[in-house]
Design brief:
Strand order of the largest sheet: 6-7-8-10-14-13-12-11
Order of helices and strands: HEEEEEEEEEEEEEEEEEEEEEH
Largest sheet: 8 strands, mixed
Radius of gyration: 24 Å
Helix content: 10-25%
Length: 325
């Protein structure tokens, strides 16, 4: 092989070698998970949200995602049986996609679903956590608006310490978006949801903070994406068991596990182990345990250095070819 042919081959190899790029959030090994029960009530066919009680042992709440007379169901986690119902009034409620309980014991019902993106009456509803037994409440209604028109919101998060409230949109063919609500909500005026300009995964179906608020879990149909709420950057992806229609997520109060659920009859309640761990000295992430997450650790300057090295190598090869000729 002639010298110039060797040099040309080297040039091709340099150009074909991929430059170093930032590592994508790692897909974790399957965390430990177990089905603890199935929701055994024919009235619950479209369980769309979960919220675990911090004051009533063995109680988790759910709600169907449609209906003009919404009912929050209290479920015994260990058996899947309904142990309480709460009829919620206070407004025209039509598409409840998420529920949550804040650090003060207030239950939030998010009537923010809008598959056709045509609603102008979306709102949050707040009332005291009902507990077991049958109840009827008139909730406080907080209307929500979006500056860029109607948005289909499937995930609602309340920070367990600060009370800050966020909304996660559902997009089936492109990235979702994250919105923040005002610190003080109004019942008499519309509460504008501010787009934070942070991309979320496609097909978001629910969301929740972990117990201390240091990480946010964004649920999609087949995975749970971990975000750092200080920057709202994704730090990892958790694989979770496949269900009929991955729909809901709720952190358990002890912080060592979360629940996931599904739409459909006899919706399973699945407990997934979780260990936030530490990604560095300051920010929580995972230590590589059962539900590990791996942070993006590739320095950005490697990308620039790799590109410059390729350019310099190619320039040298071209110069050598010219001298040969």
């Amino acid at each position: 092989m002639t010298t110039w042919t060797v040099r040309l081959a080297l040039a091709s190899a340099v150009l074909a070698t991929p430059m170093l790029a930032p590592a994508a959030p790692a897909l974790a090994a399957d965390p430990q998970a177990e089905e603890i029960s199935q929701i055994d009530d024919p009235r619950i066919e479209e369980s769309s949200g979960l919220a675990v009680s911090a004051v009533h042992d063995d109680v988790v709440y759910t709600i169907n995602d449609r209906g003009s007379a919404p009912i929050v169901y209290a479920i015994a986690m260990s058996t899947g049986r309904v142990v309480g119902t709460t009829a919620v009034g206070g407004g025209e409620i039509s598409d409840t996609e998420s529920i949550a309980i804040d650090g003060e014991g207030t239950m939030w019902l998010a009537d923010l679903g809008d598959n056709d993106k045509e609603r102008d009456d979306v709102a949050l509803y707040a009332f005291d956590e009902p507990g077991p037994g049958d109840h009827s409440v008139t909730a406080e209604r907080y209307p929500v608006t979006f500056s860029d028109g109607p948005v289909d919101i499937e995930g609602f998060l309340v920070h367990p310490v600060t009370g800050a409230k966020y909304l996660a949109s559902k997009e089936k063919k492109k990235q979702g978006a994250l919105y923040a609500l005002p610190e003080e909500l109004s019942t008499s005026e519309a509460n504008p949801a501010a787009d934070l300009g942070r991309a979320l995964p496609e097909d978001v179906s629910d969301a929740a903070f972990i117990a201390d608020g240091s990480q946010a879990l964004i649920r999609t149909r087949d995975a749970v994406h971990v975000f750092d709420p200080e920057t709202w950057t994704e730090t990892g992806v958790l694989t979770v068991p496949t269900v009929e229609q991955g729909e809901s997520i709720a952190m358990e109060p002890d912080g060592t596990s979360f629940l996931i659920g599904s739409e459909g009859k006899r919706s399973p309640l699945i407990r997934v182990s979780y260990d936030a761990g530490t990604a560095d000295d300051d920010k929580p992430a995972s230590d590589g345990g059962d539900a590990s997450v791996s942070p993006d650790t590739t320095p950005a300057w490697w990308v620039v250095a790799g590109g410059l090295a390729a350019v310099v190598a190619l320039a040298g090869i071209v110069w050598g070819l010219q001298r040969r000729r």
